[in-house]
Amino acid sequence: MDVLLLGASGRIGHRIANELLDRGHAVTGVSRSGEVDGVDDPDFEAVAGDATDADRIADLAAGRDAVASALGPSEDETVDALVSMAEAVVGGMREAGVDRLVWTGGAGGLEVAPGTRLVDTEEFPDEWEPVARAAIDAFEVFREADDIRWSYVAPAALIEPGERTGEYRTAEGELVADEDGDSYISMEDFAIAFVDELESGDAVHTYLGTGY
Ligand SMILES: NC(=O)c1ccc[n+]([C@@H]2O[C@H](COP(=O)([O-])OP(=O)(O)OC[C@H]3O[C@@H](n4cnc5c(N)ncnc54)[C@H](OP(=O)(O)O)[C@@H]3O)[C@@H](O)[C@H]2O)c1
Question: Which residues are in the NAD(P)-binding domain (predicted)?
Fold first, then answer.
């Protein structure tokens, strides 16, 4: 596939770039500066682009098979930038006539029990709440975009650099936790889950939880 990867310079994004490239896909990786560290492959091109600019997204997405995102609000932006980016990505994809999107979402909107979302639990850390709620608002943008074949793939509650084991589980709309109740996934295994979904399209129009 020829994939436009937004947020390729991020912690999760550059791992998704490497997972895509290892599987033989061609990747154009976007960051605001046009610099992407940690990715070195003849099938990779780094380009500059602002993901809040729908026209720029349209220019970059035109003719490609899919758009992938590991976008997150940077420290110099408010968390609402995530919603502006979601709107611009949908608008830009429509303009370009590209209809497949896989988005790195947040775990906050996943259910821990019927009717109870992770973000609404007492244990959810206060400092993560604004970005978790912005990620849920971004999900609402996609929910209204039936013409886009989007998949919203969320990490476990905790995601960190770690091992690439190839093992993971998924659940539609639910937080994935182990038998001790811990919800974790390494960034490397999340990248596998993300690219598996991009290739398979098994979870189109789905909020997918991932974890061990
Ligand atoms: N447990 C969870 O639910 C959980 C945990 C961690 C992360 N996440 C989510 O996963 C996503 C990625 O996380 P991360 O830790 O990899 O983030 P990160 O390292 O901060 O990377 C964010 C990426 O977004 C890009 N970006 C930001 N604003 C942009 C703009 N206006 N135009 C173009 N690119 C822009 C950055 O590029 P430049 O700054 O280089 O331009 C960077 O590549 C986030 O949405 C985050 O909320 C969820």
Answer: 7-198
What is the best residue among 4, 16, 71, 84 to mutate for testing ligand 1's pocket, by most ligand atoms within 8 Å of CB? Answer: 71
Ligand 1 contacts CB of residue 31 (under 6 A)? yes
Please tell me the distance from the alpha carbon of residue 87 to that of residue 94, in angstroms, as a whole number.
Answer: 11
The CATH T-level fold of domain 2-211 is: Rossmann fold (3.40.50)
- Return the sign of the alpha-carbon dihedral for residues 57, 65, 47, 136: positive
CA of 77 to the centre of ligand 1 (A): 11
d(CA 27, CA 41) in angstroms, rounded, equals 9
Strand partners of residue 169: 211
